[in-house]
# Entry
Amino acid sequence: MSLCGENQNSLRDELSSVLDSAGMNVLSTNAYSPETLVKVTEENILKANCSIHIIFPEYAPLLTTDNTNSISRFQFFEAKRKLASDPDFRIIVWLPPSTGITNVETKQLDFINEVRNNISKNMIFSNAETPIQLTDDIRSLLEFKDDVEFDTNLTDIFLISNQLDESEANEIMDMLSDIVPVERLSIVQDSDMDYSEYCTQQIGKSKLAVVYFKESGEWALPFTQQVWKKIGGASSHTPILLIGDEDPERNFNKKFKAPKVMSLIIAGELIPLEIKMSYDKVMEGKA
# Structure
């Protein structure tokens, strides 16, 4: 595993320590001069099965051979080049919330947007709060599974629910399908199906993903968090609406705050209308 990213040594060292404690072998670009970083990066990425790129507010340091290109940008696109030739390679880009996005230099903000526009399979853009949380994202991304192509369809809304809420979800489906194309998935407990992978593929063909719950709040929140990470987190092209019925009252704390996620707890009879309104916002580019 190659750990890339310059400046703010304490955060990088903390992440390196957490990864080491988790049993991962870490190759770091720390303690190298800008003159030698190009060669070190190329050598480390060749040895690694995964690269982690920490993004900080500053665009510097720059390459000594190209003062318009930062070392972080060079490292990211070196990793992309490795990924193009090695489908088992993985890339994690971490933008720590503690760095403060409002303080980011203009050139660095351009680079961040460039990264988000270059997210592809086997990559993740994470806003994890701490190195420990990021390590969970890394574990998830490094889980190698045989690719399975599911039978998915282009649709406007992808409605996901748990079998515990089967009848209510069917009613919502009936109301929505009269006015907008909807694909429906009911999660069955103890099934052998890889639901997270199926959802990832179907969400990629949907304009809005909806996770609905009434009695299944304990399932819905962690499932939404898992799927959000799998589809690219903040860099996902498809928003997720996590929407729950206010009855029972225990649902009120089942909310997930993250980029590209809308989270609502409202009266059950209003849920179909709220889903349609959220869909309209997505189509208008307001979500």
Remarks:
- The CA atoms of residues 256 and 263 lie 6 Å apart.
- DSSP finds nine helices and twelve strands in the chain.
